[in-house]
Amino acid sequence: MEIWKSLSFVYFFLLAIQQVFTKRSLPKYYMSELCGQTLQLAHTPVPAGRVELVRRGDYRDNMNCVWTIIAPSKHFLMVMFKDVDIDKRFFKCNDYLQIYDNDKPSGNFLSGVSKLCGENHPRYPIYTNKNAMTLRFVSDSRHDDDGFDLYFNVYHQGQCNTSEFKCDNGHCIDKSLQCNGYDNCGDNSDFCPNHTSSLIGIIVAVIFIVVVIVVIVYICRRKRQKRGRSFKQNNDVPMTTTFPQSQPQTTYQPPQGQGYPPQGYPPQGQGYPPQGQGYPPQGQGYPPQGQSYPPQGQGYPPQGQGYPPQGQGYPPQGQGYPQYHGYGSSGGPEGYSQGAQYPQPGQYASQYPPPQGPEGNIPSGAPPPYPGPPKDENEFSKVPL
């Protein structure tokens, strides 16, 4: 399929080369710019021309353009269409081209050009019966297209002079029209063999170049496809990471019966004293339990003797305290007989000696001696507050 595309490209390329090397340009006329005028070919350097409706783009709306072409006396005109694109809707020519067989827009039309529209046009040369023709183009206000493209030339029949070329069909055309790439005779007899041979050589050379290019492109594409497949296969293979093989671990096995630690360390039990020898036996390093302090009941008063019994340190219920009558001259409260009802400090010291220590001495910091229980109930009132 690609080869056929390449051949089609070569064909159109060769046609373009043919146009360049074999065609000599004809004078070009734009009819939309020449409306109402007349072209006298007897006063032109080349008795031929190419006609287009507009210079560029689409033609205008509401056109009614008439242009007349007149050849020298006893000469005729030949017309050949190249392209036609005129508006046609619903099988009706809304815009059209007419070519009359005289120098006025009336009378007979040229064959097949009475009302030309659409895209179909005559594929054959059209000849006038007189030395003039009149072109008329009409357009409406709705839709526009490109128009038309044609070429024409002057000819006559009979004896050709030295400045003319005699065609195979008996037409005599100007010698400048020979081998210009256009069928000015109407039978292709004005094409030159020398130009044809040159064209054949050019065609062969171009074909060779194109074949070489096609081969190179094909080879490059094949290599690219191979690289693409190889890259795809490489991507499909799962990636694996190879790590260096680790050395097998060796487990130390000491000689049978030795175990750990290895030889060079003291055997278990030699580096430390035997259990129970590094420290004094339990109970020897310290005094026996209960010997470092005095026996219970010796250093302190017996339990319950450190304070007077409940109810002895205060007067009996109902007696209260003596009524206050102010301060006396001795600094005490007036009305109280200081020392009358309450014992004074040291009153019972002789009756209740303080407890003695293990050696008969009072320990330093010992609490005051306990006076002992009262001998009668009246001594409750002597307990100082």
From TrEMBL:
Positions with biased composition (Polar residues): 231-243
Signal sequence residues: 1-22
One Pfam family, short name: CUB
Low complexity biased stretches: 244-327
SMART domains, alphabetized: CUB, LDLa
Keywords: Disulfide bond, Membrane, Signal, Transmembrane, Transmembrane helix
SS bond partners: 160-172, 167-185
Transmembrane segments: 199-220
Domain of life assignment: Eukaryota
The keyword Membrane is assigned to this record: yes
Keyword Lipid biosynthesis: no
Matches recorded under InterPro entries: CUB_dom, LDL_receptor-like_sf, LDrepeatLR_classA_rpt, LRAD2/Mig-13-like, Sperma_CUB_dom_sf
Record's compositionally biased regions (Basic and acidic residues): 374-385
CDD domains given in the database record: CUB, LDLa
Location of the region described as Disordered in the Swiss-Prot/TrEMBL record: 228-385
Domain called CUB: residue spans: 35-155
Protein name: CUB domain-containing protein
